[in-house]
Amino acid sequence: MIDTKTYQLTQKQYTHVVFNTLRKNVLKLIPFVLIWGLLLGWYVGYFLTLYAVLAMFLLSVAILVFLSMKNLKPFFTETHIQFDAEFIYFSKNNNTSKWYFERLKKVVAEKKYWLVYNTNTDYIYVPKNIFLTEKDQLAFKSYLKV
Questions:
Q1: Complete domains list, the chain, with CATH
Q2: What is the pTM of this model?
Q3: From residue 3, how far is each of 7, 80, 88 by CA, in Å?
C-alpha cells in the first residue's frame, strides 16, 4: 500500500478547477451554438442571426456555469489517499472510500492535478505534489493509465 501526504483543496484551487473545466466545455459548445443560430435565423436576416447566435452562446455559457458549479462540489476538508495496484482509498471526514482503478469513468490530467472520476459527477481532486517520492507518483499515474 502506497501512502501520500494529507492535502486540502482551497477556494482558489477550486475556482481554478471550475473555470478550467468550463473553458474546455465552452470551446466544445461554440460550433453547436453557431450551427443552431444559423439554422434558426437564416430566413430572418443576418443581424437577427448574429443576435440569435450571441444570445444562445451567452445562455449556453450560463447553463455551463450552473452545471459546473453543481457537478463540481468542493472538497474543502482534509483528504488522505492511499493506493495499491487495484484500489485507490481516500479518507475524508473520518470516512474512507475505495474505488477500483479499472472501473474509473475518466481521468482529467492537468499540469498540477488530476480529476479522477468514478462516475460523471463523483470525482476526487488529486494534486500531483502529494506523493512522497517520484516513484509513487509514477506508480499512481500508471494505475490511472494516463
A1: 2-6+75-144 (2.30.29), 8-71 (no CATH)
A2: 0.69
A3: 12, 8, 10
